[in-house]
């Protein structure tokens, strides 16, 4: 009976993992829709290529460094604390036994999909000016080093997950669906890249006032939101089963909480923009929905529906102001709002899980402190690491497309064909007589 | 300025790590963790401000 139940749980978890690609399909559609028509297919090809490179590099190197709590790892002992910082698995999934326990195989499979998801997040920020080759190199570095390292600390038995039993801080850093490991890592990667790329030409006037560059397809954006929801159901549920031992009976609650957080965030963003501008803003409402999903990833497995709704409402307000502040005051050009949605939404979700969570795992007080330490690690280690590594790569392979690329559109410049060949939407394409 | 901001981010994190390793659970550990986070926030603000491009001032 026990073995049958365990097999059923593993099969269910496997099916949920297979839903995750819907999340990055949704994000890719949203990014493409929020950009201009002249770079529409480039945006989608970039997402596909990023997912492909991330999957290959993660299988080759990433999982060996991420590992699982059952895989041997390296640690440093200081002050009576052992800092388990990296796994010592084998490259290319070597050593994984297909006939063995399904948990390790499922964790490896989950890791491939989660890593590909993380790689897709920064694309929305670098849209219309990030060269494809440079983007793939940046993705390889993210998938081969940064993502697996932080994922090991949180999900692979690393020092952040051990804060509870080792240092008496709550139950250790909890991130049941990747709000930190996927969303914030992807969001900080987006921030580093926008800093290095600079704004699109014409985005800011000579005095620094931002110009609105409307997206070319709001239908893509809203349909992307629905697709992303399906992917997030799989992400939050499978991660809760794999890393925190959630029983299948908890999946309906996780799904309801995920939906409620997204719904609360979308409604808050729509109401706020309706109050401020007279009409609800479609793009910001969609960003609100996705920010709610990003925030749900930390605590959907540990919250009651009312708390999930509150988390969503705050996420919706937060993302609306964050998008405005980044553009108006910090002159950051993020066409798809990736930084606000994934970094700000994810950070809020992690903090909210600290004070709005009801945890089935044994542990002491101080969960909020554990969450703060996780946030401090993301800010103080992951962000500088991402910035430094992208800065170095940018010196080797220039990230920014040349002026012609931006003028023609990335579709024509890098791929040789437009997404909409029958539609000449900008005068630069018309031969001058 | 950019480098200073990034160094402050890392410094704040090192303070947080040191507090976990060296200080007992009760007492000043929380204060040091908050101090480390505060330094990180300062570093983030500095890094963000250092990346703002220069524009012509409006006359």
Give the chain pair forming the largest contact, with residue counts. Answer: A-B, 32 and 30 residues
Profile the largest sheet of chain B: none
> CATH top level of chain A?
Mainly Alpha
Q: What is the domain total for the residues of chain B?
A: 1
Secondary structure tally: strands of chain B: 0
The class by helix and strand makeup of chain A works out as: mainly alpha
The percent range for helix content of chain A is: 55-70%
Rounded mean pLDDT of chain B is: 91
Shape of chain A: globular
Order of helices and strands of chain A: HHHEEHHHHHHHHHHHH
How far apart the termini of chain B lie comes to 27 Å
Please give the largest β-sheet of chain A: 2 strands, antiparallel
Q: What's the helical proportion of residues of chain B?
A: over 70%
Task: Reconstruct the topology from this structure.
The complex is a heterodimer of chains A (433) and B (59).
Chain A: H1 2-17, H2 21-34, H3 40-66, E1 73-78, E2 81-87, H4 102-120, H5 132-155, H6 163-167, H7 179-197, H8 218-244, H9 251-277, H10 282-299, H11 305-328, H12 338-355, H13 367-396, H14 403-408, H15 410-415
Antiparallel strand pairs in A: 1-2
Helix pairs in contact in A: 1-4, 1-8, 2-3, 2-4, 2-8, 3-4, 3-5, 4-5, 4-7, 4-8, 5-7, 5-13, 7-12, 7-13, 8-9, 8-10, 9-10, 9-11, 10-11, 10-12, 11-12, 12-13
Chain B: H1 2-22, H2 29-50
Helix pairs in contact in B: 1-2
